[in-house]
Design a protein that fits this description.
It is built from 11 helices and 8 strands. It is an alpha/beta fold and 295 residues long. The protein has one domain: Aldolase class I (TIM Barrel, Alpha-Beta Barrel), CATH 3.20.20.70.
Length: 295
């Protein structure tokens, strides 16, 4: 199968914080360079893993700007419709595209129980930019799961290049794949990742990419090269990574990034906390991953 330029691995970006919960921009720039060094197809700034709901508008714009600055040749996408009012969202779209990002991300905004409103809202907002747009079923604004028929209509419009699907059920994933056309259903669920690829998903946008990009790049290359057995083995390692960081995300991902050599506190603005047992579990996983050439 031939894949388009918007398929593949979208590596999510964490937001490092200082002890007072101000953003540690120095750590962030080094982290973006580290993520880009693994050559994913894209970086995704200002996402759920960035704690975007806890960030102010100016902080979101600065994070996107710095990501573009430090990403080298890796194109950056960023969420651009988090403000509460319609006119503020139009301004946000324009400001985000001025950061230099190569694409925008629109969340479904909690409109998914009203298909007509959802379709009209996304089409009207899309008219305010010429950049490619990825859709995002962001769980922070519910109901967030887009009906497949609505996605099919949006896919046919030519305005959208893909969707971060967060349904977490293969039946629902396949419904979107059936109508994706030339767009890209990008998978967020780790246990079903290989199965979703087999079904026709065209990439991944998942939380463990914040700290395990090499594994996702490796699996995508193996799968697209036709080495299904190798892709299955790498998927096993990805599942182990997902289980290792499961509790306390995003804090646990930040702690693992720090263990992997990018200085970063595991502070968050949300309710996340890491107890000694979780810290030890992440350390054990990291030691194993390093010793076995996994990470």
């Amino acid at each position: 199968m031939q894949y388009n330029e918007f398929a593949g691995v979208y590596s999510l970006l964490l937001t490092p914080f200082n002890e007072d919960r101000s953003i540690d921009y120095t750590a962030y720039e080094k982290y973006v360079e580290w993520q880009a060094s693994f050559a994913p197809q894209h970086l995704f700034a200002v996402c759920g893993s960035s704690e975007m709901s806890e960030l102010k508008a100016d902080e979101r714009l600065k994070l996107a700007t710095l990501a573009v600055k430090r990403a080298g040749d890796v194109p950056v996408f960023a969420t651009a419709n988090l403000e509460p009012s319609w006119y503020a969202q139009i301004d946000e779209v324009k400001a985000m595209q001025d950061t230099g990002v190569k694409g925008l991300v629109f969340v479904t905004k909690g409109y998914c129980n009203d298909p007509d409103r959802l379709y009209t809202y996304l089409m009207e907002l899309a008219s305010h930019t010429e950049l490619p747009i990825m859709l995002y079923e962001f769980p922070g604004l519910q109901p967030h799961l887009m009906p497949a028929d609505v996605y099919g209509k949006l896919a046919q419009s030519g305005k959208f290049v893909g969707i971060k699907d967060t349904t977490c059920f293969m039946s629902k994933i396949k419904e979107k794949i059936a109508v994706q056309g030339d767009t890209n259903v990008l998978q967020a669920n780790i246990p079903y990742l290989y199965e979703a690829y087999e079904a026709g998903a065209r990439g991944v946008v998942a939380t463990p990419t914040t700290c395990g990009t090499p594994l996702f790049v490796k699996m995508w290359k193996e799968f697209t090269d036709g080495d299904k057995a190798a892709a299955k083995r790498t998927h096993e390692h990805i599942c182990l990574l997902d289980n290792a960081i499961g509790d306390g995300f995003c804090a646990s991902a930040k702690y693992l990034v720090n263990l992997l050599g990018v200085p970063m506190n595991w502070y968050t603005r949300g309710p996340h906390n890491l107890n000694p047992q979780r810290l030890k579990a992440i350390e054990v996983f990291c030691d194993w991953a390093k010793a076995n050439g996994v990470l």
